[in-house]
Design goal:
The protein folds into 2 domains: 28-133, PAS domain (Beta-Lactamase); 150-364, Phosphatase 2c, domain 1 (4-Layer Sandwich). It is of the alpha+beta class and 366 residues long. The mean pLDDT is 87. It starts with a helix and ends with a strand. Helices cover 34% and strands 28% of the residues. The strands form 3 sheets. The chain has a 5-stranded antiparallel beta sheet with strand order 2-1-5-4-3, with helices on both faces.
Length: 366
């Protein structure tokens, strides 16, 4: 009875060992060498991937598949490791019989007898040639995308005009990605007036970004041919509507400051109020229009006279809706009251990866 149970146990163990062996053989490239590196066994996968027949492999040195371009230092390290009865692991590029290369993730095990002497080596390998090729393709695509994003960003930045000195004008422009919905420009016109705008395309992706870029380009061209914001709005609005999709919106603030700096003429739709500081008071000028859509009426234009004002702050919604608690201290009114912290605010905001585009123009009346 006991003998039968022992036989059953032995049969079970042998069955498991055979299954383990078959799994290893079917899923791995396996070879065995004697202590001198002469091949004494090559499994089916090794024969297939190397391109040699079993007869061509057996009795040959394992370096029959060695890639001459592989560093000799790697093989020296491998032999030093396995001769010291340690397992060596690494990535090796081998050469097929036809001269083509393949790459494997290899583990080489020293096999010891009862006295602790090395009697043979077993190498178990996985073919990673396709994986490496895919990784290379991914890396090339990533490099291409980075290059294209840089080209696109350079083009977008080329469309931003700012010919005012840093002593007069401070700008924070932090697009959340290359497909930014924000765009701005500020410059002096030939008649001495100051013209500025911030555009905010509502939505994400290519469409609002292209709309904003196109509108900005038109703005920068038309403004030099008109005398008033009214003329600009009448000429620009029909063209803007052509770019807007059915549910697309364009928020905007467009301001012209007279040459004597006393009159602000503006049209604003769907934006936060822009702020004007005079003495210690802050005036909030709210939007006088809804965001522009393809069915919107012609936007209205308003004007106000403010003599001896100190500063102007115009900004997109990202300045207040960034969702970063640490940046909550930089509220528009606080920036107006303490302009000394504006540079600090710019540095901190620029260090974050924000979910929304942030644009802010701070203009001093010097």
């Amino acid at each position: 009875m006991l003998t039968n149970e022992m036989n059953k146990s032995t049969d079970t163990e042998l069955s498991l060992l055979r299954q383990y062996y078959e799994i290893v053989e079917e899923t791995n490239i396996v070879s065995k060498t004697n202590p001198h590196g002469i091949i004494i066994y090559a499994n089916k996968k090794f024969i297939e991937i190397s391109g040699y027949s079993e007869g061509e492999l057996l009795g040959k040195s394992h370096n029959i598949v060695r890639d001459p371009d592989s560093p000799s230092s790697m093989y020296k390290n491998m032999w030093a490791t396995i001769k010291s009865k340690q397992v060596w692991k690494g990535v090796i590029t081998n050469l097929r019989k036809d001269g083509t290369k393949y790459t494997v993730n290899a583990s080489v095990f020293p096999i010891l007898d009862g006295d602790g002497n090395i009697v043979e080596y077993i190498a178990i390998r996985h073919d990673i040639t396709e994986n490496l090729a895919l990784m290379k393709q991914v890396e090339e695509l990533q490099a291409y995308n980075i290059e294209q994003e840089k080209i696109a960003l350079d083009k977008l930045n080329a469309g931003i005009v700012n010919n005012l000195s840093k002593e007069v004008c401070t700008v924070l422009y932090t697009p959340s990605d290359i497909l930014s919905g924000d765009f701005y420009s500020i410059f002096k016109l030939n008649n001495g007036a100051t013209f500025l705008y911030i555009l905010d395309g509502q939505g994400h992706g290519a469409s609002p970004a292209l709309t904003v870029f196109a509108v900005s380009s038109m703005l920068n061209q038309i403004v030099h041919k008109i005398e008033t914001i009214d003329e600009l709005i009448k000429q620009l609005t029909p063209s803007i509507k052509m770019f807007l999709g059915e549910i697309e919106q364009l928020s905007y603030t467009i301001i012209m400051i007279s040459p004597d700096t006393k009159r602000f003429t503006y049209s604003s739709g769907g934006m936060y109020p822009f702020l004007i500081k005079k003495d210690n008071e802050i005036l909030k000028l709210k939007s006088n229009n809804n965001p522009l859509m393809n069915f919107s009426p012609l936007p209205i234009v308003s004007s106000i006279e403010i003599d001896n004002w100190d500063s102007l702050l115009v900004y997109s919604d990202g300045l207040t809706e960034h969702g970063v608690e640490a940046l909550g201290k930089y509220k528009p009114e606080m920036l107006m009251k303490k302009p000394s912290i504006i540079e600090q605010a710019i540095n901190e905001m620029s260090s974050y990866k924000l979910d929304d585009d942030v644009t802010m123009i701070y203009l001093k009346n010097i």
